[in-house]
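just leaving the lab so this will be short. what follows is a protein written twice so to speak, once as letters and once as structure tokens for the fold. can you read through it and tell me how you think this chain folds. anything you notice is useful, everything is just below:
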Amino acid sequence: MSKFPPDTVPCLPHLSHEDTTIGFFFGLRTDSKHDRKLFIQHVLKEVRLWMDVRDEEEQAEKLLQAHLPTILRLSHECPFEDVQDQFSMFLHDIQKERVAKLPRLVRLGPSAFIQPAEVAPLSSAGDGVRGLFVDAFLNDCRVSHMVRLMGDHPAYLNHFVKTHHFMMRGDGPLPLHWRNYIGTMAGARHYCGYLISLQQLEFAEHCQDKVWMKDMGDSPKKLQNLGELNKILAHQPWLVEPSHMEELLKPGKDSWSMSELVHAIVVMTHFHALAGFALGCGLNPEVDTNLGHTWEEPLVHDWSVSDAETISPCSSVNSHASTVVMATPAAAAAATAPANSNGSSAHNSSPGSAHFPTSSSIPFCSVPANGLPGSIGYPASSSPPTSHFSLGDGEYGTFSSSPTSPFVTSEASQEKLLRGMFEKMSLVRAGSDSTLTVEDCQEQFECESLLSCELEPPAKTSTSSGRVQCPYPDWIERFVDDPEFSHEDFALRGEYSGITSFRYFDYSWEGHGCSLVNRLFNDVGVLLDEKFKCISTMTYNTFGDKTDVDTLPMRRAIWNYIHCIKGIFHDDYAYSEVNLCLPIPFKSYIKNVTCFPERVGFMDFFNSLRGFKHSERVHINIILMEARFQAELLYALRALNRYITLSSNS
């Protein structure tokens, strides 16, 4: 007799049961192939029963609509091939029998910006990466698209999976569904449909009362009170004051405990930064969320045609990619190519190995990175947007810029750009100036802050570039309090000009923040510290097609530039290195992903990072995410620390 782990005993819902959540499939979270087989048999038997009685039982139809999208996801995105095979066969049989309407994929692969063939495969990745995918699946019963994209960086992924899981599902002062709700509030500040839809799915797993998700006014007042701190941390964290902490912590019916507040702060800042990663990398919605599948029939569907020639709910990712509506034929062909001419796999699992797409393989981003209909992308036939003004001939080449994002106008200029970056990095390594005083660094910091103000944010709508922003749907806007509040440059803080820059060494993560988090939210400080240390040292010594390159100057420039944008000053860093290591298009992309990720489109990703391999682009976006996360966290923790000091002195 099979023995299941205690929390995965197959307890399947019957027609009177209300469970329409992912928890229904948690029996799959086991390493035992035999146990998984037994569990799948139970699941499919139950689903068949619902199909047989759905005409008489309304609940049966409800359960089918709730669980078939997850079966579709598991048939495509599971690290266990036996699970994929059994669910694929089941969907194939149902499709042939035509006994039920089946959901279909909206998009193929984890990212709208990176072709599926160039992402680490789930079942055939290297042992280390596959082990991390399995760990993620055993934790959450899914390998999320954000985890998939991080697969080329296993050292970091290991820390990310552990930290994210502990933060959202581990021991902590906040109930699990509160964590999902706070994650939803945080993701909504950047209208990140990917995160919101995923957190809503997980919220339903932990709480059957879905009224909270219908209107923020129906959630507990205690959660609503987080709105002010949430919006400030997301857009202008330098405005956070001890008074914000006092308002939440003061005694009363809806007061927060200190440990609860720290947990909430960690979740909020994590999801603000994660929204930048999701949107900056163009993550496709998870298949079983409301954005990731459709129940609509294909425009043309001939049941006499083979599955390979039609849009099938059970199409294999590898064999039927050309049927997915989001890709051009060229992109689909590239996605389905089984091997290179020499017979090797199209995906090299080593970091920095992904191939750069040619102009003929640019996908049409019919669903932008925020997961919403209405493109913030460009069709394959489009040329880059017409420039609105010229930045002239610089050291890195000739640039042109539009209100959406600056980019280099030709591949030759892009090659010159990358070569110029490499040469400038060499100068930084060779000529590090140890004679700079703190005052010199401060002056350079202020200068760099002002220069960053000259980088125009992407326009919400630009007809010349093809960028179109549809109105956000109600299920996103309902979580956005004060939508007019957004990023303003720290150097132009106007009425708040009395606010000085945050001097990192007066309140650093290593010296102050980590210990405060660890004291109030056990073990999270250590997990975050390990993750920050990993990303600060992670390198493969590659730079485009160059190898054995010391990339520290560029990685350090990216990190400190983001902190500069957020008003944080490192008095041991020469900010002149930022301009040497980061050309204007690159700086513009960094600022946009950090401050306006909801406006980032495919061509921003494609042009601003041209010349880098896909894995390097993901690496860059991870650095952006973690630097922003730490910056917001520091402002919140400093304010909390000041509140604690003031309270103890009063």
About this structure: The chain has a mean pLDDT of 78. The beta strands are 104-105, 293-294, 389-394, 397-401, 407-408, 502-503, 542-543, 546-547, 568-569.
